[in-house]
Amino acid sequence: MNPLPKLAMVIFALTACLSIARPVSALTVSRDQWDQAGSACQLVAPTTSSKVRQQAAGMRNEGTTNEFVICQFTSTSPLEWATINFQSLDGVDHVVNCTGMVGTTLGFVAYSSKSAAMGPDWWPAEIVWMPADFGESGDFGSALFSVTCLLPAGTQLVTLGSGYAEDVGS
């Protein structure tokens, strides 16, 4: 007896089963990522005379002049929100100015500048970016996001945070 007709019937049956199988749906999980600013940020123009120090407690400006710092947010998907937190070191009121940039100069890029006031009570000030700050809805439109701030003397960057939806399969 020739086994080829049986093999052909098995292949036909498998093909028929596969053609009516339901598609696998993706599962999306919300992720929050937090980072300590001492490791996630750096000086824009490092010099040996700078009094900005990367420490376990944050990125501290122990000097008498304001310094530009840049912080990189890491993500595997477009961000849905991002935040950066500051704290006064000297018990004096301070205002920090920051510009968030989403995307790259090779393609889509958008900027959003914001400020926050730090009081003398040592409680962190916060700046939050949302998709609307970049003309988007739902997410930032890119997983690439960084923030450049003019860090006042006597202050520190404490933490960075972000949220995004990640496709984890089915």
* Helix and strand run: HEHEEEEEEEEEE
Strand fraction: over 45%
Unreliable sequence segments: none
Helix fraction by DSSP (H/I, runs of at least 4): 10-25%
Structural class: mainly beta
Number of beta strands:
11
The description of the largest β-sheet is: 6 strands, antiparallel
| Overall average residue pLDDT | 84
State Rg: 25 Å
Number of helices: 2
Distance between the termini: 44 Å
**Outline type:** elongated
Which helices and strands appear, and what pairs or packs with what?
Layout: H1 4-20, E1 28-36, H2 37-40, E2 41-43, E3 52-55, E4 58-61, E5 67-73, E6 79-88, E7 94-103, E8 109-118, E9 125-129, E10 145-151, E11 155-167
Antiparallel strand pairs: 1-11, 2-5, 3-4, 4-11, 5-10, 6-9, 6-11, 7-8, 7-10
How does this structure look, described?
- This protein is mainly beta and 170 residues long.
- The chain is built from two helices and eleven strands, in the order αβαββββββββββ.
- The strands form two sheets. Strands 1, 3, 4, 6, 9 and 11 form a six-stranded antiparallel β-sheet that branches. A five-stranded antiparallel β-sheet has the order 2-5-10-7-8.
- A hairpin with a 2-residue loop joins strand 3 and strand 4.
- The longest helix has 17 residues.
